[in-house]
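Project outcomes to date are best conveyed with an example. Our students and postdoctoral researchers have been running inverse folding experiments weekly, and each run begins with a structure described purely in tokens. The record below, which covers 152 residues, was selected by the lab manager from last quarter's runs and is presented without edits.
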């Protein structure tokens, strides 16, 4: 994984799974709930109207503390290669602002997928770092979910 400077987050990962499987895990609510969020967090519900202009709402439950929600609107939906959406918290922290997430998926020989993730622009370095930690852990769980060993 790599992270660039500034108040944007850039992550890259190669997943040992076909691009169509990775796209489904990124977009289908029942699959998303299996990997979404930092370690220790649960995803009790995920709702999605997967189309440009459609909205989504994801419930997140930390190990300790109250349930909270993430909401946004899909900007681009191009299965199985690209997905972008707005990202904002209901009842945001004063340092939060709406950001844009873009996920690009590149097929590598039909058996692996390069995932390129960007998010920004963040209001503060502290919020960018918090998202980096959360996405790094979540994408690690995604990798475990879609890897060949997970299906055996």
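After processing, the design step wrote out the following sequence:
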């Amino acid at each position: 994984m790599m992270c660039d400077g500034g108040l944007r987050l850039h992550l890259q990962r190669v997943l040992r799974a076909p691009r169509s499987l990775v796209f489904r895990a990124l977009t289908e609510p029942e699959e998303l709930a299996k990997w979404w969020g930092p370690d220790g967090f649960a995803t009790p519900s995920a709702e999605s109207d997967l189309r440009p202009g459609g909205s989504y709402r994801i419930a997140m439950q930390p190990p300790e503390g109250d349930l909270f929600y993430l909401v946004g609107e899909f900007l681009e939906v191009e299965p199985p290669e690209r997905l972008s959406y707005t990202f904002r918290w209901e009842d945001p922290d004063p340092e939060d602002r709406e950001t844009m997430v873009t996920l690009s998926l590149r097929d590598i020989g039909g058996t692996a997928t390069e995932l390129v993730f960007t998010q920004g622009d963040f209001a503060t370095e502290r919020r960018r770092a918090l998202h980096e930690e959360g996405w790094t852990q979540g994408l690690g769980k995604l990798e475990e979910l879609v890897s060949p060993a997970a299906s055996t």
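The chain has three helices and seven strands. Residues 125-146 form the longest helix (22 residues). The training component of this project remains on track.
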